[in-house]
Write a structure and sequence with these properties.
The protein contains five helices and six strands, in the order ααβααβββββα. The protein is an alpha+beta fold. The longest helix has 14 residues. The termini are far apart.
């Protein structure tokens, strides 16, 4: 049986995706399996891109079904939702670890980067206003290698 600590990114095939969904105690459906596989195959994709991937695999699937599956998977810890400024929400199956993201200012490419401190939270504010901080989301911004080569 899979545990929440097992990275969902291992769910590349249908059987693995089904097992991961079933292990969380929810009903396995073709659309849920297709959504989880699409997120795994296209890390950092937005919901519209994932909807097109699911439709190419299954045919007719409502946009709402994809959004519902993404929300459920986030709640279950199967996907992570990131929201870079100026970009729609993106989804990935790399969960259960403490990593961050680097985003290209020009083309919007997003890549995973390891946490510089190793353990969460990576940042502790000097005055947390009586909050108990358990997570800090860090997004590094710059230009990817391809955009660095483009003339200005």
């Amino acid at each position: 049986m899979l545990t929440p600590e097992v990275p969902a990114r291992l769910a590349a095939d249908r059987e693995s995706a089904e097992s991961m969904i079933r292990a969380r105690g929810v009903r396995v459906t073709a659309s849920r399996v297709a959504v989880l596989r699409a997120v795994n195959e296209q890390p950092h994709a937005d919901a519209d891109t994932l909807t097109q991937a699911v439709r190419s695999r299954l045919g007719a699937v409502s946009t709402q079904a994809v959004y519902d599956a993404l929300a459920l998977f986030k709640q279950l810890g199967l996907v992570r939702r990131i929201e870079p400024a100026g970009s729609p929400a993106r989804f990935e199956t790399r969960v259960g670890d403490n990593h961050h993201h680097v985003t290209c200012r020009q083309c919007g490419t997003i890549a995973d980067v390891e946490c510089p401190t190793g353990s969460p939270p990576c940042l502790t504010p000097p005055d947390a206003q009586d909050f108990v901080i358990d997570e800090a989301e860090v997004i590094y911004w710059g230009l990817c290698a391809d955009c660095q080569q483009k003339p200005v």
